[in-house]
Write a structure and sequence with these properties.
The protein is mainly α and 235 residues long. Helix content is 55%, strand content 7%. The protein is rod-shaped.
């Protein structure tokens, strides 16, 4: 009978618990005894923790290797060559200007990668001559060549008269005078030609030399006429 009483009490307590759980589910505001609420909360915690542990995926260990630093490609430096002195190929010059007062000019600049050297600078000015000046120089040079031939004629005439001495003595004396005058005029003309070539282009009136030239040319022409008039045979 004692055992039956214990079983009855247990069934009664279980019914009360079940009834209180159902009533709490139907009405959340219903108060549950503290002892029963503690048991229920413990069961919920165990159930929830088991569900969360079953649904949680196992963590995979991720290995983070240490990234090696990537070095940029190294470009070898070009050896810097020493700059050379400027030569004629490193200069560029404009064309010569029109001749003005016997001078022509031009402008030159460095176009190469070099350093400036004063001694290698191209000429930027020069003497020049106008057409009138060139004609005068040509005339003087032509006369000098012509008069060399004239002197050869004097020499040949003297050689022809020597065998005719004493008859040809007067002729030889005339040739001597012609030759002396020729040498004097030729040397003057030669010096005048040399001086003019030195100052050509700087003289505003190159024909100022013409008067002196014409005087010498007239004297030479007179000597040529005297030679031509000299007899070649003497008795």
């Amino acid at each position: 009978m004692h055992k039956s009483l214990i079983v009855f009490v247990a069934i009664l307590a279980l019914g009360i618990v079940l009834e209180s759980g159902v009533s709490h589910a139907a009405n959340p505001n219903t108060k549950i005894p503290k002892r029963i609420e503690a048991r229920l909360s413990t069961r919920r915690t165990i159930r929830l923790s088991s569900q969360s542990s079953s649904t949680q995926k196992p963590k995979q260990s991720v290995r983070n290797p240490i990234a090696k630093p990537v070095s940029a490609p190294v470009t070898p430096k070009k050896a810097s060559l020493p700059r050379a002195a400027c030569g004629s190929q490193d200069w560029k010059c404009t064309g010569w200007s029109i001749c003005s007062s016997g001078i022509q000019t031009r402008a030159c600049s460095i176009v190469g990668d070099c350093y400036f050297v004063p001694s290698a600078t191209p000429t930027e000015s020069q003497r020049c001559a106008d057409p009138m000046d060139a004609a005068l120089v040509t005339r003087m040079e032509k006369n000098l060549d012509l008069w060399k031939t004239f002197h050869n004629q004097i020499t040949d005439a003297a050689k022809a008269l020597l065998p005719q001495l004493p008859a040809s003595r007067a002729g030889l004396q005339t040739l001597d005078v012609i030759e002396s005058s020729y040498i004097d005029n030729y040397n003057r003309y030669l010096q005048l030609h040399k001086d003019y070539l030195h100052v050509r282009g700087t003289v505003k009136l190159p024909w100022s030399y013409q008067y002196q030239l014409e005087g010498i040319e007239g004297s030479m022409k007179s000597l040529q006429d005297q030679l031509d008039a000299l007899p070649t045979v003497w008795y």
